[in-house]
Write a structure and sequence with these properties.
Blueprint lengths: L1 H24 L18 H11 L1 H7 L4
């Protein structure tokens, strides 16, 4: 029972990694913002700020500068 649970999570992670790989290999694809985000302008600065917030520990430990 526990093995099935673990295997299901591993499969889900594999699928997520495959999607990420496809996204990285095809960076030209556009993301369409719908619903709540429609009409909102997202700048490169906004994206960089979000990256730093998400990966703040990596930015601190590696000394990355943006």
């Amino acid at each position: 029972m526990m093995n099935e649970y673990v295997l299901a999570h591993i499969k889900a992670i594999q699928q997520d990694l495959e999607q990420l790989k496809n996204h990285i290999e095809n960076p030209g694809c556009k993301v369409k913002l719908k619903g709540l985000w429609r009409g909102v302008d997202v700048s490169e600065g906004d994206i960089e700020e979000a990256k730093q917030a998400v990966f703040r520990d990596a930015y601190k430990s590696s000394g990355w500068k943006t």
